[in-house]
Amino acid sequence: MHLNEEQVLRTDIQTRAEAFPNIGPANHEICFTNVVSNIKAGDKPARLDLSAGLLYAGFCQPAAVNAVYDSLANSWLGDSKPRRGGNQSPNQSLTTQSLTTKDTAFTREFWRALWQLLDSSGHTDAGSLTARIAALGGVLDPRFQAIAEAQSHNNPGAAKPHTRTPPAMINLAQLASAPEHSLAAQLHSMLTENGYDAEVLDRQTLGLHALPAGLRYLNTRILQMHDVWHLAAGYRTTSLHEIAISAFQLAQFGHNYSAMFLAVVLTVASTSRPEGLPILLQIISEAWRHGRSCPSFMAIDWEQEWHKPIDEIRAEQGIVAFNSALPADLLETLAQANEG
């Protein structure tokens, strides 16, 4: 793709994303259902609407996440679900919806940082990409954080995070002394054999201490429990399942970073790698549905479960392991085939 073509696509996405708040909350679900249906029908502009809606939910209005992702999953997986928000033409663009009220707004700094991130995404390792996506939070509308904090208080899966104290660091020595087939032992093996850090990223470096109480607890606990949830929920550490577990976490407790990460990943696919879009929509839809059906992982005291085998924990907590129609290592397999 020539640079000028990519610039046109980005300008189009930006225009559509900035118009998305104008459709009003009651129309989020029906609008996004139509977007996904149009993508399945091969409509190219619908890919840009997809990116626009996810960027809006991820970086502008957390309250839109459930409606947007519920309709994405229901439409992509082929479920029949009543539409809310009145009648609307399936071909109607996000940019032509009826005007109602606006929420937070995208900033110029955000768009500049996003496109710079996308320009370098193919040459950035996973850890650096995570940090750069998280850094986009620093160039958002100043009202965003307060909205995200309030949303965390009201999300049942978040388990009232503003009332809870951020936990201490995971003790690797304690994990090492756990029974052989326990959750703790499997976590210790995962961390040591792969050279993973116990909390993915350093909570102090990310500045989590400066966040409001709810977001501080949620983000700290997510960093700490990310690999635990890989094991307990049945997500492998492949590229495709890292995308999937982001959708799972978003469905569970409205994790802002997960919404941001998925929006960036799907924007890359919509603009540069459209052939991969069906794979991403399938895995994200499946994992979102999985997250919505599982009990709240945030409400479980995982440190009290260390000594138990994972199968026992699943049985006691009512957790069903993730099961996808796609092989977990699909992206690695495709990459090897392309190299060959």
Give a brief outline of the structure:
This protein has helices at residues 3-19, 28-40, 44-59, 65-76, 108-120, 126-135, 144-154, 172-176, 183-194, 213-233, 239-253, 256-271, 277-293, 310-317, 330-339. Helices cover 58% and strands 0% of the residues.
Q: How would you characterize this protein structure?
A:
With 340 residues, the protein is mainly α. The chain has a domain of 106 residues. It has 15 helices and no strands. Helix 3 runs antiparallel to helix 12 and helix 11 crosses helix 12. About 7% of the residues have low confidence.
Keywords:
mainly alpha; 340 residues
Ordered list of secondary-structure elements with their pairings:
Layout: H1 3-19, H2 28-40, H3 44-59, H4 65-76, H5 108-120, H6 126-135, H7 144-154, H8 172-176, H9 183-194, H10 213-233, H11 239-253, H12 256-271, H13 277-293, H14 310-317, H15 330-339
